[in-house]
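subagent[fold] <- orchestrator: predict structure for attached chain, return tokens only, no commentary.
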Amino acid sequence: MTMRFRAAVLRSYTGRFTVEEVVLKEGPAEGEILVRIAGCGMCRTDLAVRRSAGRSPLPAVLGHEGAGVVAETGGPGTGLRVGDHVVLSFDSCGHCRNCLGAVPAYCDSFASLNLFGGRETDAARFTDAAGAELAPRWFGQSSFAEYALVSARNAVRVDPALPVELLGPLGCGFLTGAGAVLNAFRAGPGDTVAVFGAGAVGLAAVMAATAAGATTVAVDRHARRLAFAERFGAIPLQVTSSGLPDRVRRLTDGGAQYAVDTTGSVQLINDALRSLRPTGHLGLVARLHTALSLEPGTLDRGRRISHICEGDAVPSLLIPRLTALWQAGRFPFDQLIRTYPLADVNEAERDSDLGCVVKPVLVP
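subagent[fold] -> orchestrator:
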């Protein structure tokens, strides 16, 4: 089987995406599925390829928040059927100690499978129209495209009554923020949560904390994002030059039990630690690009800090939980989405960079 379809290809770390014809030379092998993409979220991790130039191979088709309909399967062992609606999430090996321990986000092969080239056998199967190889399966997907070839392991079946074209961000960005609160913290009624950075991941954390019954404070510089946070049940707090930890502590009756940093800012990380009550826990979900220097006293009295990858999630468990919360009106992620035709991928990136949109979704 040879398939030709459109995809957004990134050929240069500093260049624009080009929407062009690509070629898939083989159909799904055992354990794989071919998905017709209905929508794919644009995540900061996709755009971070430019910042870490040279680490992730190009040319490539990016996109790792895909959702769509199964068009073909690699046999009955996938557990999926043609016509199933699925959300795609990150790739994992399935057999290392962490995968077997139900923490696939910490898979021994996470970096190689998701960021640095995927499985070597994939490369020759995916080319441009001229036959030049494209880097295989970004995050196991490469879903800035009309079709994606994925492992059935990172596909989660969802209710066909749901708007599948909007569900892709549940596979990474929204999963990360919500999972930090629901999985890593296990926050519940009576807890206090401070969220630093009210972008897509931070607002997902806000929605999850509100759904869990926690008192939530959202910290950001941008009034528009804080307006979303307030709509979703958080107390909005605008960043100013001084006194931020004191203000958070006043709003959380002596300090937050949990805090999420989505910014990667060393100053805000220190502020978040100082905002915690004794025994409080700060979770970092953003990638750090500078050394993290902690100010004296920030980890006193039982406070701790950890990195949380992909919301500590087992996607097949968390994604259905989030869709059920959405159906109950308690996780209104769709309010953060703006859709763009795949052909407008560069406009979606521009609007994301400018902060004009919280979560762009590309629709082939």
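orchestrator: received. Logging for downstream: The chain has ten helices and 17 strands. Residues 211 and 330 are 6 Å apart (CA to CA).
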